[in-house]
Task: structure prediction
Amino acid sequence: MSNNADRLPPLDLLVAFEAVARHGSITLAAAERFITQSALSRQVQALESALGVLMFERRHRALVLTPAGERLLAATRAALAQLGEAMAAVRAPRPPAPLALTTTPSFAALWLIPRLAGFTGEYPGVDVRIDASFERRDLRRDGFDIAVRYQPIVGGDGERLFGEALVPVCSPVLQRRKPHPLRTPADLVHHTLLQVADPGGASMPLEWEPWLRQLGQPQLQPAARLTFNSYNEAIAAALAGHGVTLGRRPLIDALLKKRQLAVPFGEATDTARAYFLLLSPAAANRPDAQALATWLRGQAASV
Result:
């Protein structure tokens, strides 16, 4: 018995033939297939040679199918369509694109990540990618679905999630440490202030200055200062008992609830900044992005 497969021309010759027949042009078909005109012409000639019959009539600036070409074109298109359907049916499902969220390092580390297991547990199939950066990402250009931005309340972009308040915090051990326990703001003269570098070059970050002034200690000089490049480092130093920093609520609320940090004195003071939720235009068509946005709103409402 003869093997029909042995008499079939290579698939790439049939694909080339179909492209030429559809465009009626070697030039256009070659551009579609990203090969040279001469290479595509050789493929058509190889098919004609294998079948022993012309597929096209070469006319002035045009290629016209012969009767044999028309018959082969109908069969080729039907076969290619059937192959495409079969490949789509057997191809492994393509994993969904990661859901990309950009925010500040402190929001990510102190507020979002400790809660994120609640979202991934509710939506186990969603792949979340978190970009923790001080750079302001362009959602459309940089491929992000959601942003949570720390911005001034006046003129802030997006939907406000929650505001911010400052309060001094330290390790509970440091709060009780003898001979200088922390009971009043004046006791800070015996302790180290943990601060974040001020881009303006001031001797003390702006957060401490108005807070001390409000508490009647504008001239207070602490025993020492430790300055860090990021807020996360200042919180880590406070947890380790190295000094007192200004806690940003609600970012540090979980640490207060677990009694890893304590408020030795003073009331929380509202700042002029807040956290805002922004969604990219593409997020409107992504159910997983909408789910994460709804979850973020719910978590913010419970603050």
